[in-house]
Each structure stands twice: as structure tokens, then as C-alpha cells.
């Protein structure tokens, strides 16, 4: 694994823990981060031993937003490129075959909230805060936050959060369906790694195909999605791991994946 300046990478038991490491800047997203993160995605996408990806932040922030110091003097073309690189990067993250968990340890604002929304689900510290405050700068979200937030939390919640720029608690985010679980700060990583290892203990082809079918199904009709599910369900019978999983169940033992 290559060395990174803005990221820390730890791999254990099939789980890759990625820590965004710019604590002095509240882990704000800049061009250097996106360059490194895309390099990391190139590596992770080819690494068969990594079954689950966990993303968190160093210090008191998950990610406090995009780097305003880098943005403030941008012209139209530069701003468009900065928006598109964020959108493309987060889309690549969303389309990874492996499940991706956001371990939201603190402030997840602006681009940080958008990064969390691009993950498959979010486990939050009770001290975490969420928000899309771009309107207070005369802007709107630029990394597909207007699109993912409305899809995950509903139109009303998206409009409320984006138009007010209000910062909400982890419990508020849980009630809106934007977070799947809230835990005490000191238990966050323990709980996230427990969930990650639970998923990693299941059939790797099964969890990847389940993610694929769920995400693709959101974009097609129920009939088409059901057909996709049936086809994918059937394809899994061609994998030795499926045979092993069923045999282990019948023999009352753990599967040897």
C-alpha cells in the first residue's frame, strides 16, 4: 500500500479503515485530498482481500466541508472542475463493489456530509453534527448533496436542511433516516468495526451482489428490479462459496469461505 499525506490506511481481517487526516483544517476536502483518495480507490478496487471499507476522520471532525480557502478565488471553470471532481470521486466510492461504512465521529458538514451520504450507510457518534451550510456562503452543495440527500432523507428534509443551512444532531439525522445507528463517542469505532467484521464474515460474493442489486434497483422499476434480483440470486449458485455456505448451515458449522 502506498503512503498518503492526507489519509491513514489500516487493513485488518478484511476491513480497510481509511482515516481522513487533516485535523488542523478539520479534514476539509481540497484538491490534494481528491487526488490521493482517487489513487486509494484505484488500489482498493483491485484488492480482493479487502471486503469492507470504513471511512472516518481524525480529530473532532469527520469532514467539516470543502476547503473554502482553496475555493474563494475560483472562477466559473475552476469551480465547475472542483464540483465535478468531487462528484466523480464520490460516485466512484458509491459504486465500489464492497460495502462502505461512514463512521461519523464529529462534524460532517458540507462536502463532509456529502461524503457520508455517498457511503452505503452511516454509524454516528452521539457527538456528531450534520449539515449542508453552503447557502450561508451564497452557494449550494456541489458534490451531489442536493441529489443524494433528497433520495435518502426525502424531499422535505433535503429542502429544509439545504435551504436553512441548519446543523442537526446525530439523533436528528437518525430520525430522518440519514443515519442507521448512534452510539457514544468512545464506542464508535468499536461498534463500527464490529459491524464491519460481521459483514466480512458473510459470503463476499453475496454481500457485493446484494449491494449491487439494491443500488441498481433504486434506478429502475419494481418489475425490473425483481427480475434483476432473481437473475443475481440464481447466478450466485455458480459460486463455490454459495455451496459452502449452505453446506455449513446444514452441517451446523461455520462456513470455510
Short description:
It is built from eleven helices and ten strands. The strands form two sheets. A six-stranded mixed sheet has the order 1-2-3-5-7-10, sandwiched between helices. Strands 4-6-8-9 form a four-stranded mixed sheet.
Number of domains: 2
Rough outline: globular
The main sheet orders its strands as 1-2-3-5-7-10
Low-confidence parts, pLDDT < 50 over ≥5 residues? none
Distance between the termini: 25 Å
How large is the radius of gyration? Answer: 19 Å
CATH superfamily annotation of the largest domain: 2-enoyl-CoA Hydratase, Chain A, domain 1
Q: Any idea what the CATH architecture of the largest domain is?
A: Alpha-Beta Complex
CATH class of the largest domain: Alpha Beta
Question: What attributes characterize this protein structure?
Answer:
2 domains, globular, six-stranded mixed sheet, 2-enoyl-CoA Hydratase, Chain A, domain 1, 257 residues, alpha/beta
Account of the protein in words:
The chain is α/β, with parallel strands linked by helices and 257 residues long. It folds into 2 domains: 194 residues, 2-enoyl-CoA Hydratase, Chain A, domain 1 (Alpha-Beta Complex), CATH 3.90.226; 47 residues, Lyase 2-enoyl-coa Hydratase, Chain  A, domain 2, CATH 1.10.12. It has 11 helices and 10 strands. Strands 1-2-3-5-7-10 form a 6-stranded mixed sheet, with helices on both faces. Strands 4-6-8-9 form a 4-stranded mixed sheet. Strand 1 and strand 2 form a beta hairpin. Helix 5 packs across helix 6. The longest helix is centred in the N-terminal third of the chain and has 19 residues. The radius of gyration is 19 Å and the shape is globular. The two termini are 25 Å apart.
